[in-house]
Write a structure and sequence with these properties.
This protein is α+β, with helices and mostly antiparallel strands. It has helices at about 10-15, 30-35, 85-90, 110-120, 135-145, 150-165, 170-185, 190-200, 200-205, 220-230, 235-245, 255-275, 280-290, 295-305, 315-325, 340-350, 355-365, 370-395; strands at about 1-5, 25, 40, 50, 55-60, 60-65, 75-80, 100, 105, 120, 150.
Length: about 400
C-alpha cells in the first residue's frame, strides 16, 4: 500500500501559494485494508475514507467510465491493481494531475509542473469532454489564476463540449456551486470570459439579452465585478452586482440572501443615484423601500454593491491603480461619498426613539395607523434638520 498527496495541495505548493485542503490517494489497497487501519468510510459512489487522526480524505486509486450523458453518468472502479498514473489520468487539468510521495518527490506523468511554469491550463486527456462540470471548474480556475491562459487544444475541446449538448445537463445547484467560488476570487470577470469564449454562457444564462453581451457593454461588467473584488465585497454583494449587470438570478440556485439583495439593488439603484436630490420625506420613503431601519446591516450591503455601479462613487487610490484608470473621476455634489451620506441619513432616522413617540401618541388617543404616522413624522423632522445642515456645509465647501 502506497499513499500519495494529490490535487490542489500539490499544485498550490508548487505555485508557492498558501495551504490548501489535502487530498490523498491510496494505491495497492482494498477498503478492508483501510478499515483495518482505522479509517472511516464515507464515499457512496467510490471508496473515500477519513483518516483516524487528521480527518483528511483518502481515496482508493480508481478509474472512471462514461455511461450516460451529464456529469452523473459515470461508473467508478477501484482496485488494488490500479496504478497511480491511471488514477491521475482521470483528472481534469495537468496542473491538478501531479502527486507527491512520502519522500517529497513529485510524480508528474502529464507535465503539469511544466504547465504551471508556463501558466497554461491544459486538459489531461480527451476524457475531459465527458464531464460538463469541468467547463465551470476551468472558468473558476481562470478567475483564481488570472495570469494563466488556456491551451488552444483545450479551448477547442470546451467549444466542442458546448456544441454537443453536454452543458445542457448541468443543474442550477451545480452551476451556483462553481459560480459562487469564482465570484469570490480576485478576478471574477475572467470566469465569464471563459464561459463566453467557449459558448457556455448563452447555454447557462439564456435570458441575458444580447445587447448586454456587446463589446461596448462587457467592459462595464468587468469594471463592476473588479471593483467588487478589490473592495473585498461579500458574496451577496458580488452576486447583486452580477445580477444588476446580467439578470441571472432566475437560472441560479443561489441562497436567499443573495437573491434578495440582487432584487433590492435593481429596485433601489435609481433612487440611490439620485439620493442627493431627495427631500426628507422622499429619503424616508427610500429607507423604508430598502428596509434600512429594520435591517441596517443589509442596507450597508446594498450600498457596498451600489458603489460598484454608481456614477457618483469615489474610488480610492488602490482601486484606481488596480483598474489602471487614469481618467478624472466625476466630482460628487459633496466632498463626501454617497455611501457615507446615505448611512448618515439612515442613522439620523434610527436615532428617533420610536417607543417614546409611540407612547406619546397613545396618550394623545391616536390609533395604530396614526402611531406609525407619528413615528415617521418624527423621522422626517430629523431628516429635514440633517439635510439643512448638509446643504449648509456643502455650500461652505464649494
Amino acid at each position: 500500500m502506497k499513499i500519495y498527496l494529490v490535487g490542489g495541495a500539490v499544485r498550490d505548493e508548487i505555485m508557492g501559494l498558501g495551504d490548501s485542503d489535502k487530498d490523498w490517494v491510496v494505491v495497492g489497497a482494498t477498503p478492508e485494508d483501510l478499515i483495518f487501519e482505522g479509517y472511516t468510510p464515507v464515499g457512496k459512489d467510490f471508496p473515500v475514507f477519513l483518516h483516524p487522526q487528521t480527518g483528511e480524505e483518502y481515496a482508493l486509486a480508481r478509474t472512471e467510465r462514461k455511461t450516460a450523458p451529464g456529469y452523473h453518468g459515470f461508473v467508478f472502479h477501484a482496485d488494488p491493481n490500479i496504478t497511480l498514473e491511471e488514477d491521475l489520468a482521470r483528472r481534469d487539468l495537468t496542473i491538478n494531475a501531479i502527486a507527491k510521495d512520502i519522500d517529497g518527490q513529485f510524480i508528474d506523468p502529464f507535465k503539469g509542473i511544466e504547465d504551471i511554469k508556463n501558466k497554461i491550463f491544459r486538459h489531461v486527456s480527451s476524457a475531459y469532454k465527458e464531464d460538463p462540470v469541468r467547463i465551470l471548474r476551468l472558468s473558476r480556475f481562470a478567475a483564481r489564476y488570472p495570469d494563466f491562459s488556456i491551451a488552444p487544444e483545450t479551448q477547442l475541446l470546451l467549444k466542442q463540449m458546448c456544441e454537443n449538448g453536454e452543458v445542457d445537463a448541468l443543474v442550477k445547484e451545480r452551476v451556483w456551486q462553481e459560480l459562487s467560488k469564482g465570484l469570490l476570487t480576485k478576478s471574477p470577470y475572467r470566469m465569464f470570459e471563459v464561459l463566453l469564449s467557449c459558448g457556455a454562457f448563452s447555454k447557462l444564462f439564456p435570458n441575458v439579452d444580447a445587447t448586454k453581451l456587446t463589446p461596448s457593454y462587457l467592459p462595464k461588467v468587468e469594471r463592476a465585478l473588479t471593483k467588487a473584488a478589490v473592495c473585498n465585497a461579500s458574496l451577496p454583494e458580488r452576486f447583486a452586482v452580477l445580477n444588476f449587470m446580467w439578470p441571472v438570478a432566475s437560472v441560479l440556485k443561489a441562497p436567499k440572501e443573495c437573491l434578495d439583495l440582487g432584487e433590492l439593488l435593481i429596485s433601489a439603484q435609481p433612487l440611490i443615484k439620485s439620493a442627493f436630490d431627495l427631500n426628507a420625506r422622499e429619503l424616508l420613503q427610500f429607507l423604508h423601500l430598502c428596509d434600512a431601519l429594520r435591517r441596517p446591516d443589509r442596507f450597508i450591503e446594498l450600498l457596498n454593491a451600489s458603489e460598484c455601479l454608481s456614477e457618483f462613487e469615489e474610488l480610492n487610490t488602490k482601486l484606481n491603480a488596480t483598474l489602471g484608470n487614469s481618467e478624472p473621476i466625476p466630482q460628487l455634489k459633496s466632498k463626501r461619498s454617497l455611501k457615507t451620506y446615505l448611512i448618515d441619513m439612515q442613522q439620523k432616522a434610527l436615532s428617533i426613539d420610536h417607543r417614546e413617540v409611540a407612547t406619546l401618541a397613545i396618550r394623545e388617543g391616536r390609533v395604530a395607523e396614526q402611531i406609525g404616522e407619528a413615528i415617521d413624522q418624527a423621522r422626517v423632522r430629523v431628516l429635514e434638520q440633517a439635510l439643512s445642515q448638509f446643504h449648509t456645509s456643502n455650500q461652505q465647501i464649494n
